[in-house]
């Protein structure tokens, strides 16, 4: 790994950003508008018009203290992505002034293998072919902290070995895309954020139902139509890496300016402050307050046949995320430390800041409001927590949350 920061900040005149209408893409475009003077061409599918492209960007700019104006608007150009990405190189004449590519488009659907392959691998390959025909200073790829797959070692800030297995085809295809970028002969940067959640001060979240929000929304929809006096779930005690979206923007901005070509950066919170899935469940039960909680450390231990159908449905729905949370993910954080020493404002997610996000989610949920109204008088004051490491060995503890 190159280990020194740049002596002068990186800058580009005209950046091509993919995925700009999506969650991370709009955070990135707003951050570029705030901290650079570059023109930004947003390569989006032809189904998007200016309104659907600009809406999340304008919202994020406002949240970052940058009121929208004509000057900002004039820096954004919407460019339609051809349906067949293998023809991307034909766009060279219209993109001749582009001197940096930020590739943020990606498929996050764990189950759609054909789409994961088409978007994460082939689109990346076709975009690299286009980038090689332009005169670019850098190709910046947004990967994921989980691209290592399941490995029993610290994820290095470098190209990854093949793991014994992957949680999903998502992680495999993201790792393959990283490899394509790193072996392209273009100057490159790979950023690997972990799971994004809302901002640490107010919990504002502008993404889709991914990660923790998928868990909360699944619970809201599958569980909160009735009071569950007993609740069975998988709750490993390993740290779960989450990062706040404002921390992501600050890390992106610092990495954008100061990381040398060829760097891979894990954008993750400190393991020591990260809550575990167990803590997240404890926090959730502060809201729904069952009388008895049964905690299992892995799916295989849960007696699926004998637990309430809705809880079984929930566990099946959340199975992959619960499996991911059962692995001890460890990350090298050399670049975070170095950028912090260089002045980057990056706050780790903690139990208290994640609670702010959960509280905002709960306050905004009509379903949970109804749950409180209908079942408020049944909610337990004292909750009993039972550890079920093996179905035969039961240890229990009563807590007043
Ligand atoms: N969310 C997280 O916590 C997180 C964490 C780590 C890394 N990431 C990475 O960040 C990137 C963006 O994720 P996100 O959370 O912002 O997701 P998102 O809101 O769903 O955005 C995905 C973007 O990719 C585009 N895209 C998807 N399929 C496409 C296709 N077939 N052709 C062209 N464009 C396509 C989408 O365009 P359409 O709107 O037209 O579909 C959208 O602009 C991904 O590469 C993901 O791996 C996300």
Name its key features:
binds NADP nicotinamide-adenine-dinucleotide phosphate, seven-stranded parallel beta sheet, alpha/beta, 2 domains, four-stranded mixed beta sheet, Rossmann fold, globular, 13 helices, 401 residues
What does this structure look like?
- There is one protein chain.
- This protein has 401 residues and is of the alpha/beta class.
- It folds into 2 domains: 14-186, Rossmann fold (3-Layer(aba) Sandwich), CATH 3.40.50.720; 211-240 and 273-330 and 348-400, no CATH class.
- 38% of the residues lie in helices and 18% in strands.
- The chain is built from 13 helices and 13 strands.
- It has helices at 23-35, 50-63, 70-74, 113-133, 169-182, 211-223, 245-258, 277-288, 309-317, 319-325, 334-341, 351-363, 366-375, and strands at residues 14-18, 39-45, 76-81, 100-103, 138-142, 188-193, 195-197, 230-234, 242-244, 263-267, 292-296, 382-390, 393-400.
- The protein has a 7-stranded parallel β-sheet, with helices on both faces.
- Helix 4 links the parallel strand 4 and strand 5.
- The N and C termini lie far apart (46 Å).
- 41% of the residues are buried.
- NADP nicotinamide-adenine-dinucleotide phosphate binds at residues 19, 21-25, 45, 81, 104-108, 119, 142, 144, 174, 193, 195-196, 207-208, 210-211.
């Amino acid at each position: 790994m190159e280990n020194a920061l740049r002596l002068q900040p990186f800058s580009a005149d005209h950046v091509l950003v993919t995925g700009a209408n999506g969650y991370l893409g709009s955070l990135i475009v707003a951050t570029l508008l705030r901290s650079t003077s570059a023109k930004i061409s947003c390569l989006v599918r032809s189904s998007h018009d200016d309104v659907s492209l600009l809406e999340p960007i304008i919202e994020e700019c406002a949240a970052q203290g940058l009121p929208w104006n004509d000057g900002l608007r004039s820096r954004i150009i919407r460019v339609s992505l051809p349906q067949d990405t293998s023809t991307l190189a034909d766009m060279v004449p219209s993109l001749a002034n582009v001197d940096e590519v930020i590739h943020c488009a990606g498929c996050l659907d764990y189950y759609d293998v054909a789409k994961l392959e088409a978007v994460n691998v082939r689109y990346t390959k076709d975009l690299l072919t286009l980038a090689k025909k332009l005169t670019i200073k850098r190709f910046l790829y947004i990967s994921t902290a989980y691209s290592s797959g399941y490995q029993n070692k610290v994820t290095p800030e470098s190209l990854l070995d093949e793991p014994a297995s992957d949680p999903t085809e998502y992680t495999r295809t993201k790792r393959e895309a990283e490899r394509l970028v790193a072996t392209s002969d273009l100057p490159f940067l790979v950023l690997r954020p972990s799971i994004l959640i809302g901002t640490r001060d107010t919990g504002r979240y502008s993404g889709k139902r991914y990660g923790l929000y998928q868990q909360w929304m699944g619970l809201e929809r599958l569980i909160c139509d009735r009071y569950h006096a007993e609740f069975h779930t998988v709750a490993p005690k390993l740290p779960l890496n989450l990062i706040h979206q404002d921390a992501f923007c600050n890390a992106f901005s610092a990495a954008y300016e100061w990381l040398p070509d060829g760097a891979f950066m894990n954008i993750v919170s400190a393991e020591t402050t990260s809550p575990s899935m167990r803590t997240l469940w404890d926090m959730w039960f502060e809201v729904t307050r069952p009388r008895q909680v049964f905690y299992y450390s892995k799916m295989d231990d849960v007696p699926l046949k004998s637990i309430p159908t809705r809880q079984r449905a929930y566990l099946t729905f959340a199975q992959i995320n619960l499996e991911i949370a059962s692995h001890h993910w460890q990350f090298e954080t050399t670049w975070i430390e170095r950028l912090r020493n260089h002045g980057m404002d990056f706050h780790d997610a903690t139990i208290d800041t994640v609670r702010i996000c959960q509280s905002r989610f709960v306050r905004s949920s009509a379903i949970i409001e109804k749950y409180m109204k209908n079942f408020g008088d049944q909610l337990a004051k004292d909750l009993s927590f039972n550890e079920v490491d093996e179905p035969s060995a039961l240890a229990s503890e009563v807590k007043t949350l």
